[in-house]
Design brief:
The chain is of the alpha+beta class. It has two domains: 2-85, no CATH class; 104-342, 2-Layer Sandwich (BirA Bifunctional Protein, domain 2). 39% of the residues lie in helices and 19% in strands. It contains eleven helices and ten strands. Helix 2 runs antiparallel to helix 4 (49-86) and helix 3 packs antiparallel against helix 4. The longest helix is centred in the first third of the chain and has 38 residues, at 49-86. 29% of the residues are buried. Bound molecules: 3,4-dihydroxyphenylalanine (DAH). Residues 173, 175, 215, 253, 256, 287-289, 310-312 line the site of 3,4-dihydroxyphenylalanine. 3,4-dihydroxyphenylalanine binds at residues 173, 175, 215, 253, 256, 287-289, 310-312.
Length: 346
């Protein structure tokens, strides 16, 4: 029996395998219910008394060695085996990180800001929840002007006892920021104000109840309509290309006098006529004018000393023209197939 134990110990210590099937067969051979170790323990009953101690120790030692060997084989061979099964190729290039794209409105807003920054315009911001004074009254809106109507403006419930000028609403245009700039600083002023505006309009391909504008304001001594024209011509050429032409059509805004709407030569057909410009060769991009002396006066700016111009444009409109997008709702749907197209424009 001693010899048997000795030869098993040798067999166990020399056994090597990284194959899980062979390791399991090895376990069964030695530690299985009818395995070698169990057989020896059976035979142990017939061992002579004087040999029992020595053989008992050797037998337990054999059992422990077998267990230890199997544990070692399992823990060291299995992970290695997994790695070799997968056959990793460490020379393969890594998976690229999918970067998102900027929203087209953000791209165009940044371009507008960059162009005016280069002309010395600063950036100013105002609140989206605005009072009647900043959104309407200070801008010379007559009491009965339709823009004040519930149809257009999202009013917010007022504090009891609020005066008409304290009425709270979501701003309907960024022109309200003009007022905040004028009341907080002295001319000369040269600033643009990008921001979100809100109007109670049915959502369609051409209109939305939330959209974005950029307001422009320049107040100084001797500012003329020629300055306005040159500023907007430069902007249009930077934005839509060096060949872009502009034209002004007389218009009306309560806060400017004279007022105008400005068209650019259609950037799609170059002025020849297409369905974007409705075959006129021109597309409207903004409203503008010389700041009404009443507005300067409302904000304690001496209109005898200072003149100024203002303009306001819709970022959606400029973006639609720039990228030939024919439905404004696409901007607000977060459809990755639409947004992914602007990756290159980042
Ligand atoms: N606030 C006008 C609008 O929302 C746009 C506008 C027109 C702004 C003329 C101006 C301006 O500053 O001078 O339709």
């Amino acid at each position: 029996m001693k010899d048997k134990i000795k030869s098993f110990v040798e067999e166990i210590s020399s056994f090597k395998s990284d194959d899980s099937g062979k390791i399991e067969a090895f376990r069964i051979k030695f530690l299985g219910k009818k395995g070698a170790v169990a057989d020896l323990f059976n035979d142990f009953k017939s061992v002579a008394k004087e040999d029992r101690k020595e053989i008992g120790i050797a037998l337990n030692d054999l059992k422990n060695k077998a267990k230890e060997k199997i544990e070692n084989l399992k823990s060291s061979s299995l992970p290695d085996k997994k790695a070799s099964d997968k056959k990793e190729d460490f020379t393969m290039p890594g998976y690229p990180n999918e970067l998102g794209s900027r929203h087209p409105l953000s791209i165009v807003r940044k371009q507008i800001i960059d162009i005016f920054s280069r002309m010395g315009f600063t950036l100013s911001y105002g609140p989206e929840i605005e009072d009647d004074w900043h959104n309407f009254s200070a801008l010379n809106f007559p009491e009965e002007h339709p823009a004040r109507d519930m149809q257009d403006t999202f009013f917010i419930e007022n504090k009891p006892g609020a005066t008409p000028e304290e009425q709270i609403a979501l701003r309907t245009h960024t022109s309200s920021v003009q007022v905040r700039v004028m009341e907080n600083s002295e001319p000369p002023l040269r600033t643009i104000s990008p921001g979100r505006v809100f109007r109670n309009e049915a959502i369609s391909a051409r209109a939305h109840c939330i959209f974005h504008q950029v307001e422009g304001l320049y107040i100084n001594k001797d500012v003329s309509f020629a300055d306005l024209k040159q500023t907007l011509l430069h902007f249009s050429r930077e934005m839509f290309g060096a060949d872009t032409k502009i034209r002004f059509r007389p218009s009306y805004f309560p806060f400017t006098e004279p007022s105008a709407e400005m068209d650019i030569s259609c950037n799609i057909c170059g002025g020849k006529g297409c369905n974007i410009c409705k075959y006129s060769g021109w597309v409207e991009i903004l409203g503008c004018g010389m700041i009404d002396p009443n507005v300067l006066g409302n904000n304690n700016i001496d209109s005898k000393k200072y003149t100024g111009f203002a303009f306001g444009m819709g970022i959606e409109r400029i973006t639609m023209l720039k990228y030939q997008i024919d439905d404004l709702r696409l901007f607000f749907e977060n459809d990755a197939r639409f947004l992914d197209q602007f990756k290159a424009a980042r």
